[in-house]
Amino acid sequence: MEKLWLQRGTNLTRLTLRKEGIEMVGRKAPLILAMVLAFAGFLSFTALAQIEVVDLGYQAKPLNPGATPPACAAGETLEWNDAALVMKVEIKDVDFPAQDRSNVTVTHIQVSNLGTVEVEAIQNIVFLDKDNRCIGPPWAITSWGENHDITDWVIPDDSTQILQVVVFLDTSGNLGNLYQGKTLRLQLRLTYEEQPSGFPAPQTFTSPGIEDKAPETIWNGGFESAADNNYNGGVLALGGTHIVQEFTLCDDDAQLSRPVLREVWVTNLGDADQYDLAEIHLYVKGTPTPIATIQIPATSFAPGIPVKITPDDFGYTFTDDTCATFQIGVKVSPYAFPGHTIQFHTTAYAEEPRGTAIDTSVAPEVTDGTAEVIATAPLGKNIITISTVPNLPAGAEGFVIFHWKSYDPAVGLGG
């Protein structure tokens, strides 16, 4: 904006107006002075109703689907349920130097999205003050750019208030994989009223757009991260029970709900099959009793074929925003084939919250970094091994053809 300077000469009847070094003298000076004063008055008027709105850069963790919507009425503390905070802005009344001593009343908030997620993914938006009290009830937004009429929210003259924005995503059944990885980056515009000095009634103003500096991401995969711990189970003895894989699942999202591990699918990348294993167990690390067990060969098990393990009691429930480490154990058949290997690729399916469905295409997967080998019992001095299974007739299929026994002359035939 060009700057204007007023200069009074030594002769009080002579007024010189300088604009960028150009001097105007004479009868035109009073007219130009009037224009300058009018312009200054306009600036003073706008200054009477100034607020500063600053995004505080709040970033939520990944946003999960909802099940139970937030609840509150104007002035009440929010019941969060499955809603999540996504944006915080600071609003400050700065009408200095006018000091009109008039409060600011926010009447409408316009919400747009500069991110990629469609409005259909959002079921409700809630506006809160700094004390988590609702500025009106939850709002069912239907289109980006919509202007929401809120309960008149007063910001006292020359004071500062915090506006918080909370969203509740659609249920997982509707969310599915349609919005996976899309972003939410809100932009707000505030419509507010303030009564400048000398005006008989409040005037209406609209703030510039306030952009969220820290966008959020939609995630419908149950757990936010998974890692294989590269557990080495060593050599697997015949007839023994051994841990063969260890992995960690983590919940780290914006919602307060607790995830539930509902299914674990294991696929053997090695060559051990249903004749090599008797059972597969799922443990929470540090607990001796498995939370799930499947029998082999009652459950078909073959290299490259996934097998489902379902935890007891309708799933294992996590504490919100924590990690849990699990172990997979196997009971080796006494008739297992020596040298066969076990290396599990594991997929974990969860519900968060309980009763919802995730996008299975992004369910966390881990692969055991170490393959375990089935071996015969250690052979001591004077110990030999023989097969107790007779020769099968030509064309016979589907039978166990190796059953190893150990023989020590000192103790006789063993298993």
Tally of individual domains: 4
Determine and state the CATH class of the largest domain: Mainly Beta
Structural class, by secondary structure, is mainly beta
- Provide the low-confidence segments as ranges: 1-26, 36-47, 379-415
Question: Counting H and I runs of at least 4 residues, what is the number of helices?
Answer: 2
Per the CATH scheme, the topology name of the largest domain is Immunoglobulin-like
Strand content: 35-45%
What would CATH call the architecture of the largest domain? Sandwich
Q: How would the global form be characterised?
A: rod-shaped
Tell me the helix content.
under 10%
Overall pLDDT metric: 82
Distance between the termini: 96 Å
Description:
- This protein is mainly beta.
- It folds into four domains: 43 residues, no CATH class; 168 residues, Immunoglobulin-like; 151 residues, Immunoglobulin-like; 31 residues, no CATH class.
- The chain is built from two helices and 30 strands.
- Strands 6, 8, 11, 12 and 13 form a five-stranded antiparallel beta sheet that branches. The protein has a five-stranded antiparallel beta sheet with strand order 15-17-23-19-20, with no helix packed on it. Strands 18, 21, 22, 25 and 26 form a five-stranded antiparallel beta sheet that branches.
- Strand 1 and strand 2 form a beta hairpin.
- The chain is rod-shaped.
- It starts with a strand and ends with a strand.
- The N terminus and C terminus are likely disordered.
